[in-house]
Write a structure and sequence with these properties.
The chain is an alpha/beta fold. Helices cover 42% and strands 21% of the residues. It has 14 helices and 13 strands. The strands form three sheets. A seven-stranded mixed sheet has the order 2-3-5-1-6-7-8, sandwiched between helices. A three-stranded mixed sheet has the order 4-10-9, sandwiched between helices. A three-stranded antiparallel sheet has the order 12-11-13. Helix 5 crosses helix 6. The radius of gyration is 23 Å and the shape is flat. The two termini are 27 Å apart.
């Protein structure tokens, strides 16, 4: 699963990406990496990992992670080819969710002006510019597909009819400047056709407010306007000072802790960003624990036990027999898996079990 960082130029997008992909927001032996110049793997901070290792000491600890893509800056007119229009469109269509960085800071830390592409700092206007460019990009797709879909629908094939009906529903909504996600599709065949269109404005959005150093919690006037706007869209927001986060990401854990305490923070804001993005993608974590490693595995909310096992290896899903499961709370209370079993808290779950966030699992399978 991938999230794409988007935003206008000079909003701190690349600073945030670099901080996220280099941050020591967990522990020194937790992996993170930049795969390509614009793609990175970001660990998901999870205090439950530390709790598990307290009772089951492993050789290594591996957090869940997500892929993050730093997408070329969007400018007004990008949907018509302005700036790196075609490049941003191709990249943004491939990700599963959008993390939009919104500028809520006025000046650089040294006091110098940082020019805004629109000439002034107005976060809500910036949100609307990007939203409209994405809608216009989707409208081009719908307009381009309608004629062909109408001709194909004359065949009477259910999938062709469904595609044409969906496009007809999307066209007036996008014409009004509204995102495709606002269109309600209840018919199963139409829902399938809707997903195949790959429209950008169906993707969920997290707004990351890049705030000034004196407004770390995002309570200032500009940040409040972003919060109000996001609320009307049903979107989540997180406040970050990308400049401070960039500094923290370069520090040793002891120095990082000292700086956080001085700022009155208990963790880097990047930790909240990573977790919010993870949630935005519809993911939760389950754990495996043993002497070799304690590991968090990402799985879709609503996934069954066999599907969760398949995240580890496809053979685990194919040959799934059952799962032995307990909670992190059980481990904290009983101190060991042996004691958990003796207390009757080790559950045996079958193929229909729906995974819960924080399950600790042993999968039994046979291929």
């Amino acid at each position: 699963m991938e999230a794409g960082i988007v935003g206008l130029p000079n909003v701190g997008k690349s600073t945030l990406f670099n901080a996220l992909t280099k941050a020591n927001i967990l522990a020194a032996n937790y992996p993170f990496a930049t795969i390509e110049p614009n793609v990175g793997v970001v660990p998901i901070p999870d205090p439950r990992l530390e709790l598990i290792t307290r009772y089951i000491p492993p050789q290594k600890v591996i957090p869940a992670a997500l892929r993050l893509v730093d997408i070329a800056g969007i400018v007004k007119g990008a949907s018509e080819g302005e700036g790196l229009g075609n490049k941003f469109l191709s990249h943004i269509r491939e990700v599963d969710a959008l993390m939009q960085v919104v500028r809520c800071f006025t000046k650089a830390p040294g006091g110098e002006e940082i020019l805004h592409v629109s000439g002034s700092v107005d976060p809500v206007r910036d949100m609307e510019i990007i939203a409209m460019e994405l809608v216009l990009a989707d409208l081009q797709v719908v307009d381009g597909a309608l004629g062909k879909a109408e001709r194909a629908a004359k065949s009477g094939k259910p999938e062709d009819v469904a595609r044409y009906e969906v496009l007809k529903k999307l066209k007036p909504v996008l014409d009004k400047g509204l995102p495709a996600r606002t269109v309600k599709i209840e018919d199963a065949e139409q829902s399938k056709a809707f997903k195949t269109l790959g429209l950008i404005t169906t993707k969920p959005v997290l707004y990351v407010m890049n705030v000034d150093e004196d407004d770390l919690e995002g309570t200032g006037e500009m940040a409040q306007r972003v919060r109000a706007k996001a609320k009307t869209e049903g979107a989540e927001v997180v406040a970050v000072c990308a400049k401070i986060e960039a500094e923290l990401s370069q520090m040793a854990p002891a120095d990082q802790k000292e700086m956080l305490e001085a700022l009155g923070l208990h963790e880097p804001a990047l930790a909240a960003v990573a977790r919010a993005t993870y949630k935005l993608l519809g993911l939760q974590s389950y754990f495996t624990a043993g002497e070799k490693e304690v590991r968090a595995w990402p799985v879709h909310i609503g996934a069954t036990a066999p599907q969760a096992a398949g995240v580890i290896h496809t053979d685990f899903e194919r040959g799934f027999i059952r799962a032995e499961i307990y909670s992190v709370a059980d481990l904290e209370k009983h101190k060991s898996e042996k004691a958990i079993k003796e207390a009757g808290k080790m559950r045996i779950e079958g193929k229909d079990y729906v995974m819960k966030d924080g399950d600790v699992c042993h999968f039994l399978f046979n291929v």
